[in-house]
Write a structure and sequence with these properties.
alpha+beta; six-stranded antiparallel sheet; two-stranded antiparallel ribbon; about 35% strand
Amino acid sequence: MLFFQSTYREPELPIRQLLHKQLEAFPQGWTLGDLQIQTDSDFTWAYWAVTANYNYKMGLDFAGEEIHVFRNAFVAKAIPHPSPSSLSAGKGYIPQGWTYRPPHADRFEFGCSGGDGIFRPEGCSLILRYEEYIIVFGTPVGSHMTLDDLRRILEVIDWEMATYLQNSTLRPGPREVPSSLDE
């Protein structure tokens, strides 16, 4: 029965605000691209999701993020990969010197792959879960984004999600799909 129980939060996660806070942690030269709302009939196993791209100086590099919103925390925990693009997220090797784990996340998987260190940067990806929210994030790591930069972004995500969850109320009932992400 838990699987089908629908919940919502008051207030709902301010996604645009979360993404702008993350952007402040990015190195100089990155911008936030368009945001799209996806539903469970589009590409996510969640009730709805937001996809966002961060771009480095006219498309030289980009980072991608998905924020999936499930009907409840039980469903989010039961579905390890909320979208096709998340199947390889968090897989690969852990770079030397990486020790950070977001202290408030219910789940954290991190890994890097590829890259030759000269012409192609390695790509790092991760999955985070905070109750009924799953965040999937991927970025190249090289000259435009370092592992320290990525750690700072993760610290912002973790702090913002923990603060949000502490200051919102989970209630029984249907969760609405937002019609827009206007603040």
